[in-house]
TrEMBL record:
Keyword Transmembrane (UniProt): yes
The entry's keywords: Membrane, Transmembrane, Transmembrane helix
Highest taxon of the lineage: Bacteria
Organism: Streptomyces olivaceiscleroticus
Ranges that cross the membrane: 6-25
Name the record gives this protein: Membrane protein
Length: 59
């Protein structure tokens, strides 16, 4: 009976890990992909614009 209690936590963690991976794969793409891509593009564009702004006081 000790082997059951020794194997139970790794088996439960393996099942949970597989569930997380499956959920991540299923959530890729779909209807929200365009909105997510647009949001990321907007953030990257604003960060790039802020990085390229000339410094006003020669910092």
């Amino acid at each position: 009976m000790d082997y059951v209690s020794a194997l139970l936590p790794p088996v439960v963690m393996a099942i949970a890990f597989v569930g997380v991976i499956v959920t991540m794969i299923k959530s890729q793409g779909g209807a929200n992909k365009a909105k997510e891509d647009a949001a990321v593009d907007a953030v990257l564009q604003s960060a790039e614009a802020a990085r390229q702004e000339p410094k006003a006081h020669g910092a």
